[in-house]
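Q: Anaphase-promoting complex subunit 4, please. Structure only.
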Amino acid sequence: MVKLDTDFVSRYGSKLPLISHTCSRLVGLISCLKESIDHMNTDYKPFADYTTRIIDLLKGEIDEKNQKDYSDDPVYDLYDLLLTGSLSDATRTWLTDYLGDRGIKRWVKLGRQHFEGSRKTMFYDMIPALQHLLVHLSSLQGLSKWEETTDLLGLDSNKINTSIETASTFLKACYKTMMTLNEEQKNFESVMEWLDAIVQEVMTDEKPTIQIKTQNIIQFLLSIFNKSGARQKNGDLQVLFDSLSSDLVGIFQRIKDKMKSQMSSESVAVLAEDTEGMLYWEAKLYGEFGILAVSSREKIELVKFDIDSLKSNKTILQGVGNPQSLLASLMEDGSNIIVLASYEREARLALLRLGEESTNSILEGNAAMVKSITLPEEEGTVATYITNNSKRQTCCLLDSTRKRYIVLEY
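A: Structure for Anaphase-promoting complex subunit 4:
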């Protein structure tokens, strides 16, 4: 146990909650950005996978029919169909046997999920997060302008300025990406209308009257050929996120180092040395003293220590009856503990009063039994874990599978 001098809290004064709140908000905002990018990738993957798979089917048809007069890339076959209206046997088979009306509807559904989902994520999550992040960084920047607060808080003005520049670039990239998504969705929908019209013509021999938006279709086919689009944009956003996250880590580290430099730890005491086999530990403070309870399979160690000097004395309570595990939880008064002893076919829960020599069925040592209860096994499992609310005198027991529980009052 280490006793720290926290006089720096009074030196920070009102700046401590300000700097703590600001850093906490920045951590939350950077987590929001990470989740948003992951969500965009999740929306994009089904669309990208389906697009790749359906184009690969066209390539397979071209290879099978040996139609490689100009290129074996299926995109060129679609170019030829767009510019000349010539429908090859491979493309006809692809349109009727693989794509069809259902394939186009699924493609449209996945495209809408990607384009609209990514746009909503950026508009409702990423852009507001970056705007709030810039506000908090500007607050830190203002504090860094004052010599006394810069020295006190450990603020690095250069790092903060770099973070603001990165966040501003990130924000601009989000706006640009939203505009690009709008353009790509328009191109994608033009391709779907065109393919749907061709499918209808092939299946019904009726030529639908639609306006073919050649430029939009070419742009979408180019994005497939170059394997560009959302994957590249999301990658660019990820690079900006990594850079911003690294900048903020540097700012936080400087602040933490400054705080640590103003802490002193003159008093150090070892309260528990042998932690092998330890299952659980718990510590509570009771005015002038504190208690550390260390639970293991065979025993419970209770270490009572003075808060000022950290001098301590140890009491060992040995398990009775070869328990599989022992767990102890401290009470609010500091004179009682509640113990869960788990055996092969039952569990025993006991409330013990410390400091009184007594013999009981759970522990040997300086602790007297106040009350106890035996819990037999149920469906082959026994109570193994305990969580305790000593203020309400209530505990919850879980079995070894952590699927069955029981709540008890004592």
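A: Brief note, in case it's useful. Residues 278-409 form a domain with the Methylamine Dehydrogenase; Chain H fold (CATH 2.130.10.10).
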